User: Fold this.
Amino acid sequence: MADEILIEQIEEGITRFVLNRPQKLNAINVAMRFALTQALDAIDTSSTRVLILAAAPCRAFCVGGDIDERKQQTLDEIRNMRHSFSNPYLRLYQARPPVIAAISGFCLGGGLELALAADFRIADETAEFGLPEVTLGVIPGGGGTQRLPRLIGLSQAKRMVFTGSRIKASQALSIGLVDEVCAQGALDETVLKLARAIAKNPPLAVAEAKRCINLGMPMASSEGLALEAESYLTCIASPERASALQAFAERKANRVDGQEK
Assistant:
């Protein structure tokens, strides 16, 4: 795997991807996009139950695309790489395990779009968010115009996109852009707490629940319910379901009036 993405096994079932270009404030270049896509392809066939998306320590989670690299590319080259540009965002959104973005410092442009593709966003108090693309004569191209309004509402999303302005972590929390804000220095602990709460559950059930929610959101209610019924039957017939019921029965047998025997 390329050095632009580091893969760390935090503990059983929990993997961390680290954006690793701190000298460039973790800006996304072509190599990082390909490395992230390859890593995500591998994750879907691994034993990972929760994926944490973090960044090498610097002043930023990610400041978006590498402008210096982009300036050296011709228009035809940019057009030809369009698929490779958007693919990591879609692959992150579609990843089988839940994804938690751990955000410290600047989270801008394509960096924010990476975070939007995650299932959860947890930030520390230094985090700052923005989609500045319009100030450079383009629009967010990694899902920002689609995922942001679905997350924070139409008007709030239009304000961020149309003005290109930045917001602090406290405001991001108030509008629902992030799920939690913690003190500086407490980000890893806060993210791991959520990751462990998810990872202790049967992975098939979690993955199917994620699939139903993500695919069902744009569907008509009847279609979404049909998808849910299909996934429910998949879970019912799984060995994980049998193991979970057995473990529950054993825990219940070891308790008397709510106390351990």
About this structure: The first strand starts at residue 5 and ends at 11. The domain at 5-199 is CATH 3.90.226.10 (2-enoyl-CoA Hydratase; Chain A, domain 1).
